[in-house]
Amino acid sequence: MKLYYFPGACPLATHIVLEWIGKPYETERLPPEQTKEPAYLALNPTGAVPTLVDGDFVLTQSAAILDYLGELHPEAKLVGDTPRARAETRRWLSMCNSDIHRTFGLLFAAPYFSGGDEAAGKVLAAKAAEKIKSFFAIANHQLKGRDWLTGQRSLADPYLFVLLMWADAKQIALPGMGDLRRFQKRMQADPGVQAALKAQGLA
Question: What pLDDT is attached to residue 118?
Fold first, then answer.
């Protein structure tokens, strides 16, 4: 099993899950320009990361990869034992992927989405940051009295952790979100998280 990634990008969530699973795997760090070359586009036509190769099976998209790993390794208990527990995991995984991550895309690529209009780009980035804060407030409320988003460690937790790293990198203030920050510290102290961060040169 092989994971293609950029350091600190969303594949870090998959990298953490692979550490939690504890089975052999390998990684390949890509420079951004390599993702546009024919050899990589044959694996992932979007020219993005992550891509997971498991034998003759090639899978793209973070949420799909994480769900696949959870289903492939039920002993890791990262999906849930009941239909409701699995639904909860996928609900928070979807929020991380479809809501928070998507909105970060607007923030990171504001010049592109604003057509190069600097003033419009600033407005777009500011609006995206506001929306990101509102999503984190929901996650903070969910974490009240919990160590993990669903009440037990799941596929959604590494994704949320990576998104918090992005918020800090973009200096998005999250005042009054103590439960979210406690979650972040707990994740930072986790051996699997530490191993993935070290492997990507982030610790």
Answer: 94
Terminal C-alpha separation, the chain:
24
Residue 95 DSSP class? I
The closest alpha carbon to 136, from 112, 103, 106, 111, belongs to: 103
With CA atoms as reference, report the closest residue to 101 among 160, 45, 187. Answer: 160
What distance in Å separates the CA atoms of residue 118 and residue 110, rounded to the nearest whole number? 9
Please give the domain boundaries of the chain with CATH numbers for all domains.
2-76+195-199 (3.40.30.10), 83-190 (1.20.1050.10)
Low-confidence ranges of the chain (pLDDT < 70): none
pLDDT at 183: 98
Beta-bridge partner residues of 173 = none
